[in-house]
Amino acid sequence: MGIVHDHHLFLVTLLVGNAIVLESLPLVIHLLMPDWAAILFSTIIVLIVAEVVPMSYSTGTYKYIIAYYGAPLVSIMIKAFWPLCYPIARGLDLLLGK
Questions:
Q1: I need a surface site. Which of 1, 37, 66, 87 has the fewest CB within 10 A?
Q2: What are the tens digits of pLDDT across the range 56-75?
Q3: 14: phi then psi, degrees, rounded to nearest 5
Q4: What span, in angstroms and rounded, lies between the C-alpha atoms of 25 and 19?
Q5: Is residue 38 within 8 Å of 32, Cβ to Cβ?
Q6: Which residues of 20-58 are buried (b: 16+ CB within 10 A; e: fewer)?
Q7: Average pLDDT of the chain?
């Protein structure tokens, strides 16, 4: 529960981390294949690896195990993205309330 006590910071950090990874994927793949193939490949990989598989595991019987082992990584991400995510989280607190 240590990383979830500030739920807006938790949410913003996960969304920023997700956006960074998913937006940089086509840039890296672009170096390995033609543009059209990079767009198609990254779209399919993002859909399967970043959306379908995590959602199916996260709503199943393993959700608490995944959360337990993922908490240290999320804690590192919160510290790394603090300068960007903290002001956004405080803005959400002002806009939506705690």
A1: 1
A2: 877 878 888 888 888 899 89
A3: -65, -40
A4: 10
A5: yes
A6: eeeeebbeebeeeeeeeebeebbeeebeeeeeeeeeeee
A7: 86
Q: How many CB atoms lie within 10 A of CB 86?
A: 16
pTM beyond 0.85: the answer is no
**Residue whose structure tokens are 């793949």:** 29
Q: Tell me, what's the pLDDT at 1?
A: 55
Q: Which of 94, 96, 92 is nearest to 10 (CA)?
A: 92
Per DSSP, helices labelled H in 6-81 are 7-29, 35-45, 53-58, 63-80
Residue 79 has pLDDT above 60, yes or no: yes
Interatomic CA distance for residues 55 and 23, integer angstroms: 19
CA distances from 36 to 16, 21, 24, 32, 75 (A): 26, 20, 16, 12, 36
